[in-house]
Amino acid sequence: MDFYFGLAQVIGVHTLLGLSAYCVLLTGQVSLAQAAFFAIGAYVAAILTVIFKWHLFAALGVSAVVSGLTACAVGFPALRVKGLMLVVATLAFGEAVRLFFFNFTYQIQAGELKIGPHGAEGFRQIRYFPEHGWSTFDVLVFIWLMVAIVMACLWWLDRSRAGAVMRAVGEDEVAAHSSGINVTAVKVSAMTIGGVIAGIGGGIFAHYTTHIEHVQFGVILATFAIAYPILGGLSNVFGTLLAVIFIQGFLIEGLRFLGDWRNLLFGALIVLAMNLRPRGFLDAGGVASLKRMLFAGKESSGA
Amino acid sequence: MRIVSIAAAALLAGMTTSLSGGALAQERTVKITGFGAKSGVVRVFGVNSEAAMKAAAEQINKAGGVTLGDGAKAKLSVEFLDDRCNAEEGISVIRRIASTDAFVAIGPTCSNVAESLFGILQKKVGDASDSGLQFPVFADVAAKGGLAAISEWAFRNVPSELEMYKSLFAWLKREHPNLKTIYGGVEKDFAHSNATYGVMKKQAEENGFQVLGTGEWLLNDTTFSTQVREMRRANPEIVAISAHPFTTCGVLREMDRQGVKPKLLIGLTSSSSIETLQGCAKQAEGIIIPTSFAPVTPEAKAAADNVSKQGGSMDLHSAAAYEIMFILKDVIESQKIMAKPDTVQADRNKMRQGLAALKETKGLLGTVGRTNDREAIKPYLYVHAKDGSWQVLHKPSS
């Protein structure tokens, strides 16, 4: 079972990463900076638990705040540009953050060892979970509790006026602006929320992988972050979850037995999925069908 | 008639028993799972490790297989899983292997994967407060220094690069007293290359060489003109490149194009492989590399041939995988490992104890020492690229 618990942990953390991009995509912006916020969360949380011996919950709180503030700061200048220019701007920011951690060394002496981030060699021994007796199942429950809270908040946000405003900006920025919506504020808010979620995800990531280094937070992770909500569909938060299960659970882990063929199939199956479900796994039509099915089920059981 | 029936029934029962017993004996197989990179630019290491493990298993099976704790003979089979040199996938792979009846795993290829997955193992054996995975892992390729110290369940059969480069630079100082300046090149984003460059630079300085500068590039880089231009400007007598075959060849070709001709070239251990010769034999001519494998003994030559038949090539990394299979055979037999579904955790503990107790093992180049922190002290030699092949340049007395 440990293997499946571990896999569910990976799916949970990547869901958080995908949801951080989901917020930004709702406002019609494509951000490749989510991996950078994820990295900031990972390093901040790990430094706090390993060097300053903080409790994990407090460390995750701080990592969420730091990532959120960074996202907010990046949001103001970056969101002045649109479309492909924004993609390039956020990609550049992501690379800048990665290169910062590539050169970042902050170590202290702990007995015979030095602990802390060590530039290109990374940051090892982030062993909060095993050292505090957390079993794989405990970690799994904790991660999914965080995922559930984030999903519930986003679900509520989506159904609130704020969510409607975000979608309005995403659908037609000019029309939204004409209606009196402060477009910049909405976009920066979405970026900040995305940063907070990525910070939490990154903090957990650092602790279940026990070692982090700059290469883990590069363009590939940034691409995965936006691929999850795009592949899953933006109609609601569950689309992102479905896409993460499809990629991490099926394409990466489920097809491992195929050996070398797995990588070939990986791209082909994503292209196929995008062709079969161009608006995502869980688009508005799919959600409506699901609702009809559920509603019909209730009617028949009620009868 | 009754006696005949009873006799026939007894005979039938006996035949059935012996047949099923024979079938069971034939079916007894112990699966050894390896894992590492079989994708991306370092996939060749995974391919070679798998071939080496299969070649070793074939040799062991030809010699009768392994004797298990209950006296039964078993054949070894090999399965190899791809972790794509990705830490998250490495953790998933080791959890997957640990969820089977496996009592040990061989891998991984990449040091960054080893860092993560050794981190999820229990740090100290018997520490009830540590909920880390209790599963022995024996690394064949991941070469960054000191990794086995992360967990008492982690073991390595990789050479000590510190010792190798310490010896090499001392030898260079003795053999080439006229050479004074050195320029470094490093594949900065690859943990092994980066860590080893630190070793090279320190040893060069300690032996009185003047380090004129360092060119840095990334594992996936394909152009090196800027780095080589700076190298040319520094005009060093020695160039030391800490990079894997792919970028080593890229840099060497660029040096050739720009006319940079140092008096001596030094390379990373991992580049003493067939890939370097296939990629840039002409430009690599003369490069000196310390390595823990070369086909210089009858055993090593035979092993290299066996690995070649399995579709891989033997280098210091795959040689480690080959040796590990024989080490595991010895530990299975000495620790009386049962390899049964109901003895899995006991077998893992026995395997860990057996590996930890080893003081020396048999290697392809001679006896391999084992340290208290579960690392290997491997014999090594210096090879240089000459006429399109690796030839032994010097055998240190160690």
Automatic annotation (TrEMBL), chain A:
The keyword Cell membrane applies. CDD domains: TM_PBP1_LivM_like. GO terms for molecular function: branched-chain amino acid transmembrane transporter activity. Keywords: Cell membrane, Membrane, Transmembrane, Transmembrane helix. It is a multi-pass membrane protein. The chain crosses the membrane at residues 6-25, 32-51, 57-76, 83-104, 139-157, 188-208. The keyword Nucleotide-binding does not apply. One of its GO terms (cellular component) is plasma membrane. It is found in: Cell membrane. This is Branched-chain amino acid ABC transporter permease. It comes from Bradyrhizobium icense.
TrEMBL record, chain B:
The keyword Transcription does not apply. Pfam families: Peripla_BP_6. Coiled coil: none annotated. It comes from the Bacteria. Residues 1-25 form the signal peptide. InterPro entries: BCAA_transport (IPR051010), Leu-bd (IPR028081), Peripla_BP_I (IPR028082). Residues 29-387 form the Leucine-binding protein domain. One of its GO terms (biological process) is amino acid transport. Keywords: Amino-acid transport, Signal, Transport. Belongs to the leucine-binding protein family. This is ABC transporter substrate-binding protein. It comes from Bradyrhizobium icense. The lineage of its organism: Bacteria, Pseudomonadati, Pseudomonadota, Alphaproteobacteria, Hyphomicrobiales.
